[in-house]
Amino acid sequence: MVIEGSLPVSPEVFGALLFALSAVIAYFCGCFNGAVIVSKYILRDDVRTHGSGNAGLTNFYRTFGGPLTLAVILTDVLKMIAAVEIGVLLVGNMPPVLLMKYWAGTFCLLGHMFPCMFGFKGGKGILSGGTLCLLIDWRIALVAWGGFLLLAVLTKYVSLGSCWAAFSFPITSWVIYQDMYILIVAIFNSALVLWMHRANIKRLLTGTENKFHLHKKQE
Hints:
The chain is mostly helical. Helices cover 69% and strands 0% of the residues. Helix 4 (68-91) crosses helix 6. The longest helix is centred in the middle third of the chain and has 24 residues, at 68-91. Residues 1-5 have low confidence and may be disordered.
């Protein structure tokens, strides 16, 4: 394959360059953390100085509540859509389009969790990760979201539902696609989310995890 106006490159090298480019773009899409942007630049009160110190939707809602929670949701959903769609556009109709969704989505999560513009201190990736499930396959989303909602409603532990969603992601991905490359990226994705929830997992095991309640503004 020849890129117009450049030296000829092999399809493998060209494909690797596209995946590298998509990784960079997806990471910077992920860096637009809704909870940090809204709290720091609109409310003038960084969400990371409250509650769990996490820059995620749950901590934002517990701390601030209100209609601006919707702005956080939209930011974290739309950035994942943008990251994945840009990746898909880069590969066009090439065979690895499905793998690209996993790839771009995972790097978007990395940006969300470790945003370079906010001191590498971001969120845990559940909302954006849930969006990725919807963008990949409704069956994966059904298992992840269904288990999340069921556990969160029955136990009031959002973190428990989040861990289920992360744990189920590579399993359902393998059952549906049985592709080793997809499985590897899905496992890495899952491991990232579970690692970000390691403190929650410890509290769940010791019975000290906070339960979710409708918003009551913190003093």
